[in-house]
Amino acid sequence: MTTAVDATLARLLDSPGITGVALVDAVTGLTYGVAGDADEAGNGVECAEFAALIAERLGRAGAEGELESVIMTSTRRHQVLLAVGRPVGDPLLLTAGMDRERANLALATRNLGDRAAEVLA
Amino acid sequence: MTTTGTTTDARNLPALLQSLHDQGFTGTVRVSGSPGGTIHLRGGLIGAVETPGAPTVTSVLLTPGRIDDDSWLAACAAERDTDRLGGHLVAAGLIGAAELEVVCTAAVFDAAFAMAIGPPGGWTLDDPEPTLLAGSGVEPRRLTEETTRRIARLSGPWGAPGELARVRPVPVPDAGLRRGLSDRHRSVLTAVNGRRTARDIAFTLGRGLYAVMLDLIRLEVQGLIRWETGGPSDGRPSTAPRVLPGRDAPGGPAATGAPAGSADSTASAVKAAPLPKRTPGGAAWPGAVRARQEPAAGGDVFSAGSSGGHGSL
User: Fold this and answer.
1) Who among A27, A86, A87 is closest to B211 (CB)?
2) A69, pLDDT greater than 90
3) Closest in A8, A66, A89 to B98, CB measured
4) B307 in helix, strand or coil?
5) Domain assignments of chain B as residue spans, ordered by start
6) The CATH number of the domain covering residues in B161-226
7) What's the pTM?
8) Would you say the ipTM is above 0.85?
């Protein structure tokens, strides 16, 4: 059965090169929904812990403000972790896998960022 | 209520929920124990879990002000059927469908975790009760696996997660001045005052218990809070008899061989003891009466909690 979260995530697959996308709780790592290839979107717990580790180390190094995104690039794909704005409540992460051959990283990341707020609509 | 033999013979709660899932059960599972709770199933899927051990969906929505009280009351008045309240909240534009689903799903997993870290109890099956549901519901196997993972994640030097949940963390001096803290960690730090447990903080902030416990661990690792030095409480007040000055008691000055009239021991004993009060026809020392009565009362409470179930977790 398609849930409301799955339905909003499925719309993000329209962007060229995005192979999988998931909505993850940035604190607990719980995955609320997935569209496309779940393996490409990444493991929710690992993504959340990785983003938390980076945010913590940046904070220790003196960085101010909240973490917005993490982009990892391998020879074949990109992995993007994007913070999803929320009025109140624990932060969420939009995790997306991209095919490097087909995706324009800058455009796809900007598109995801612009549409991240729609995920919770 | 129709249940099969497999259901009634389930060896634990996960097995029961899996059996009810296979049957497509719609109804309520009431779980005893501490904290215990209620599990709502629709067509075999878990639509909601409520427990005194973790904030409900209503708390998570109202405490931080995601939905204001007046709007909530108006929505409840307009839609009396709680099963359909979520749809009304979305239709009224108070919250998005996906965000409500996120909140409800998070509450299901958090309540299951809160119930799992407490002592096991029994269960009874009941008819469906209206409640705010988490979308299409959660499969029992997924709930069990995630709860197991959470318990493993929170097991550490402090022991099991249940013990960590009873600790009352204390902020270190000037912890709030530390730079580079996220707003979320700062809000948890503000709520830490040496009197609140993780559960208290979760209810204060309207956040999940598991998420708050994770944040507390991160704050402790960063040296911003410390666990209570006396170790976790056993959750039960002391019922030891009060020793009054001049009376011999096990462990007292007479028993330990310390000089009964030494200045330090006498001064501390006088500070700790109540003034003697004469009760006509009663015992000479009120403390002696309490010491005889309280263990019996406490024993009744504990035996009622452990024998009221219909099975074990």
Assistant:
1) A27
2) yes
3) A8
4) helix
5) 12-153, 161-226
6) 1.10.10
7) 0.79
8) yes
